[in-house]
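Figure 2 data, in text form.
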Amino acid sequence: MRELRSKIVEALVSALPITAIVYVLVLTPLLDLNGTELITFTIGAVLLVLGIGMFNLGADLAMTPMGSSVGAGLSRQRKLWLLLAVCFVMGVLITVAEPDLQVLATQVSTVINGTALIWAVGIGVGSFLVVAVAKIVFRKSLSNILMLFYMLLFALALMLAEADKTDLLPMAFDSGGVTTGPITVPFIMALGVGISNVLSDQRSQENSFGLVALSSIGPVLAVLVLGMFSTNDLRYQVPDYTVSQDILGAFLHTAGHTAKEVGLALGMIVVFFLVCQVTFLRLPKRQIRKIAIGVAFTYLGLVLFLTGVNVGFMPVGFKLGQALAQAGKWVLIGFGLLIGVLVVLAEPAVHVLNKQVEDVTGGAVSRRAMIMGLCVGVGASIALSMVRIVYDFSLIYYIVPGYFLSLALSLFVPPVYTAIAFDSGGVASGPMTSGFILPLAIGACVAAQGADAVLRDAFGVVAMVAMTPLITIQLLGFRAIVSDRVKERVAMRRILDADDQQIIEFV
């Protein structure tokens, strides 16, 4: 109970700023929420705090130990085909059941067939999880692999432009951030740590990260390929964001639906883990009981969190976006910067990433440095997304220079920073981004440019949230290099000055 209380307090501190901002805006003429909307948002905020706290505890007790044990156990088998095959199947099944992907598929079904999208994205994640594991096994450079596949992404983007389907680009890049959700991220990251620990070498730190980064490429490729062959009309229907007058009924209905989706996703992982436990892991019963308790907390936490976001935060986000766009472009852009700094604090998987980064790097990359880098990056990304909504231009003007800069930085910083940075992009673009920021962008776009521009201008905000941490985290690494070199020169100068003084005294 003490650990749970501590996690809930941490979650309260994380979620309080964004909740407080909404309450403050309600007191101003800027945001007009009726009693039903305000009560729904308040209940959603409570569920969000409880959900984040339970999820974080569950990730510590279950998701991270499960992934680490499976990765280490498969690696000890010394059968490459088994390791790669299991990782492929695991990547497909977990992704197909990921709640965030189900939500995206439903929202874009008028553009791309939802079932085809889900399975194509699942195969994409599974395939690139195999690439990520092979990178660890064969000790290849993450930077080189990222450069290869992002060049392929840009080539496909140019082909879409020639086919006059550039409006699909924002949705395609958004899918990469949405797919790596709160269920898959802790498990995949821990899987990489487990494999790297068994196959450790001088680059074990770098190899502990990068699985999420590579897994995020698969969905983008899948959607780009589907888009090239899609014959559907590129029209996006804005979802109904109105708040139900039956508050209790709305929460219960969403909770029941979410419980099934989360149960399916977690069930995939649990069944897979039990098969590994029976065949080769054989962990002690005490550890299995601890993992079982952690799975229960993870399940309850995600159900509460996603229910609170979907019912309480999405409608408010949409209405807030409309109000900000009507208030003026600079109000919209400035608020985008502020809300981006705060929303990353409420992403469940961000806390998992920060803890693992600090543990693996032995404190060289602290939680504080990570969270500051992510806050700056996400704040800038949402502000830039609001600029794009206001001035109505293509996402490609952000994506291409941004990724070229990210890949260029990877040539100058330690490989571990590159791996952490590209993982951070997938982690930062979690359910709070798709459940609050994306509706906010859609509302702003509807008010500023009209519903017909939503697919072109509102989508892409998740992609921006996933991209900017790549730059900010690597800049932290670049600063660390410069700082170390300055300290070395200062120390060397002091040594030389001391030697000169000794020579003078001797003479």
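Caption note: The radius of gyration is 23 Å.
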